[in-house]
Write a structure and sequence with these properties.
Arc Repressor Mutant, subunit A, mainly alpha, about 260 residues, 11 helices, two-stranded antiparallel ribbon, 2 strands
Length: about 260
């Protein structure tokens, strides 16, 4: 017969529910109006005094909410006689800023970033093989031609710009706006690291890989096109990871006290 457990179970305890601060509730109300299309880009919110009365909050709480929404890129606060709070158009670059901030805070690792890019880009290629129009394919072909020409001329900054534009053209060919935003954000962040590589030298085998990929894309062969892009990105991400590790080591060395360096 099993003995009863001698361990005494502690009673569950709960912390008191905290009320949301007024400015957070204001932000949520305005976001809700956007979600149901009651507010649209370009619309002006009611005057500060009127809006505070409608929401039943103090003007200081309302101002805090508007500043928070401005930082998030949702509203623009204009001064002057014709000023006020205006709903901004969607700003995809805010995604880039969020990811960059999380990386700086250590919430996202560089390995996570490059791994996510590889997975997302593979999905983009498969959709591109299904959905790319003749015009899309021609634009990608011209981009590869320009990348090759800039490489031949040794114009590395322009070559890098075309090399990065390649991913945007692919994303656009999927006709999926979310994928395009994600690709733009990840590409922009990684571009900063590419610019920091020794001398800005071209990534080895870039043009040759692009040519092979382009043949598979035109043929609609998603499997081979995906394999080619994954092979190139895996090599590139290894190079980026090494460069990033060196930059972090250098930053750590600069932060050390002088005595420790000696």
């Amino acid at each position: 017969m099993a003995r009863p457990s001698s361990k005494i179970q502690q009673p569950l305890t709960f912390e008191p529910i905290r009320r949301r601060r007024a400015f957070e509730e204001v932000c949520e109300r305005i976001r809700h109006q956007l979600s149901i299309r009651a507010l649209r880009p370009g619309d002006k919110l009611p005057a500060e005094r009127d809006l505070a009365v409608q929401l039943g909050v103090s003007r200081s709480a309302l101002r805090e909410a508007l500043r928070s929404l401005e930082i998030a890129g949702i509203v623009e606060l204009r001064k002057g006689v014709k000023g006020g709070a205006f709903v901004r158009p969607g700003d995809p670059t805010s995604m880039t800023r969020v990811i960059q901030d999380l990386m700086h805070l250590g919430a996202i690792s560089f390995d996570d970033l490059t791994e996510a890019r590889l997975l997302i880009q593979s999905g983009v290629v498969r959709l591109a093989c299904e959905r790319a129009t003749k015009a899309d394919i021609e634009a990608i072909g011209r981009n590869i031609d320009a990348t090759e020409e800039m490489t031949r001329l040794g114009r590395h900054d322009e070559r890098l710009r075309y090399a990065m534009e390649f991913y945007r053209l692919l994303a656009l060919s999927t006709r999926n706006e979310i994928l395009t935003i994600l690709v733009d954000a990840l590409t922009d962040i990684l571009l900063r690291f590419l610019r920091g590589l020794a001398g800005g030298a071209p990534t080895p085998g870039l043009v040759e890989s692009r040519r092979r990929f382009f043949r598979h894309l035109k043929a609609g062969d998603a499997e081979k096109a995906t394999q080619e892009i994954e092979s190139h990105l895996t090599k590139l991400h290894k190079l980026l990871t090494q460069s990033y590790a060196r930059s972090q080591e250098g930053a750590g060395e600069r932060r050390r006290p002088r005595r420790a360096r000696e």
